Amino acid sequence: MNPLDSHRDVLSRREFLGRTSLGLGTAALATLLHRDQAFAGGSGGDGILEGVTHLAPRAKRVIYLFQNGGPTHVELFDGKPSLAAMHGKPVPDSFVSGKRFSTMTGKPDGKLMLAPVEPFRRHGQSGATVSAFLPHIAGIADELCFIKSMHTDAVNHAPAISLLLSGAQIPGRPTLGAWLNYGLGSANENLPSFVVMTSVTKNTTCGQIFYDFYWGSGFLPSQHQGVKFRGKGEPVLYLSSPKGISPGIRRGVLDDLARLNQEHYRQFGDPEIMSRIAQYEMAYRMQSSVPELTDFSDESEATLKMYGPDVKEQGTFAYNCLMARRLIERDVRFVQLMHAGWDQHNSITTELYHQCRDTDQPSAALVRDLKQRGLLEDTLVIWGGEFGRTPFIQGKLEDRKRWGRDHHPYAYTIWMAGGGIQSGLTYGGTDELCMNAVTDPVHVHDLQATVLHLLGIDHERLTYRHQGRRFRLTDVHGNVVRPVLS
């Protein structure tokens, strides 16, 4: 083969640009240096240095108990007497005129109002209203801050979740955990800084798909993406060395790979090569840290009992909640638990009971456990989904076993605890039919700005330059919800 032909075959695009002309070479070099600086954690107009905050942080870690599918605020947290009084009557036009709903609802004209299935009571000294569906969460009402005026822009699951976690309905942007990993770095060398676990209520007919972009790093270097722990078998695949491979041999192989990758990086300057090196090293260290993490033998019987009967069953929400506490004890910065099954289009009188039974006790136990161990003060816990459910019925009123509610972006409820959040507070509110957020509305971008603020980050200053402009989690929106801060 002609050596010149062989050389052209392996010539990279970057080498071509660098060698074609001075102008193109300079442009390529500028881009390369800029990306190197961003990867190394330098600000360079792209964000803060790793580990550097803009203001005094109130929280060090986050546990996001994400309830995938849209928990019904009408059934769980936001019952109104006037809604019960409207049961079976058509929804007033003034409440839904001009609003967009999912294609399952289409036009809401003539839809019948549906009263909450279970009664509501006030709980604790704060007097927070929680329904009988969630007795354990009701029992910690004074530890919680309820935001009952959340609202969003999307009417379907994946776009709404993407908007909440990444700031955009279209996938491809970094998620909240990735932004924190990029901005603040890791506090633990032996575990990922951003861990994700998923679970689904057993025998549910309304499970959701867990797309990888829910914990993706988008255009940030891929070392910032979430590491998903599996719900069965080995938590992370391919951590164990093959049979006959000793730790010494494994270490030698990784060292040789690192040298090859470093040479590759020296030639091409692709930051993803450095991410590859970091991920190999993390996998090696996790060979010893993960088995210790997942060994519950050091947990007391009282602690295990507090989380409920499913706590020892890998892949359940209870198991994941206890794992979340163990992870943040080891200084993992962001733990994202995603539990599916909340999409009750025709099952709020049946499957909603199972859903609450699976999640209520472990959620409350996690908050109690963190507080007992002195961890709640600097750990922010968030509970909530991507939107709420319609106050009007989906289905036929006479068929009670198949009562349901459709997606509802205009109002829903979340709660937070610890990490600089004011406890025993109910913030914001909906109208008399739980239809619209009317008192102190909180958009999902406002929630994002508030979470970053609690971790010491100004959401307008944590940016990353991509495709010619600076991006941030909150896009061009978002205000810190200061009344909920302690």
Offer a concise description of the structure.
This protein is an alpha/beta fold and 486 residues long. It has helices at residues 3-10, 13-20, 22-39, 73-76, 81-85, 93-96, 135-138, 157-166, 176-184, 247-268, 271-293, 301-307, 317-329, 351-372, 444-454; strands spanning 61-68, 120-123, 128-131, 144-151, 194-200, 227-229, 334-340, 379-384, 388-389, 407-408, 412-417, 425-427, 429-430, 437-439, 442-443, 464-466, 469-471.
Describe the protein.
With 486 residues, the protein is an alpha/beta fold. It folds into three domains: 30 residues, no CATH class; 377 residues, Alkaline Phosphatase, subunit A (3-Layer(aba) Sandwich), CATH 3.40.720; 55 residues. The protein contains 15 helices and 17 strands. The strands form five sheets. Strands 1, 4, 5, 6, 7, 8, 11, 12 and 15 form a nine-stranded mixed β-sheet that branches. It has a two-stranded antiparallel sheet with strand order 2-3. The longest helix is centred in the middle third of the chain and has 23 residues.
